[in-house]
Amino acid sequence: MILLLTLLIGVLYAAGIYMILRRSLVKILLGLLFLGHAANLLIFTVGKITKGVPAFASDDLSKLTEPFADPLPQALILTAIVIGFGVQAFAIVLFKRAYQTVDSDDIDKLKTTDSLSRS
Amino acid sequence: MELLLLLPVLIPFTGGIILLALRNYYRAQLYGNTIISAISLVVAITLMVNIYSGGISSVQLGGWGAPFGITFVADLLSAVMVLITGIIGFTSSLFSLSTIDKDRVKYGYYPLIQFLLMGINGAFLTGDIFNLYVWFEVMLISSFVLLALGGTREQLEGAIKYVTLNLLSSAIFLAAIGILYGLAGTLNMADLSVKISGMENTGMISVVAMLLFIAFGIKSAVFPLFFWLPASYHTPPAAVSAIFAGLLTKVGVYALFRVFTLIFTHDTGFTHTVLLFVAGFTMLSGVLGAAAQNDFRRILSFHIVSQIGYMIMGLALFSPLALAGGIFYIIHHIIVKTNLFFISGYVNRIKGSYKLKKLGGVYKVYPWLGFLFLIPALSLAGIPPLSGFWAKFSVAKAGLELGSYTIVGVSLFVGLLTLFSMTKIWNEVFWKNAPQDSAPDAAPEKKEQFFILAPVIILAVITVTIGLFSEPFFQFSIKAAGELLDNTGYINSVLGGSL
Question: Do the beta carbons of residue B207 and residue B179 sit within 8 Å?
Answer without folding.
Answer: yes
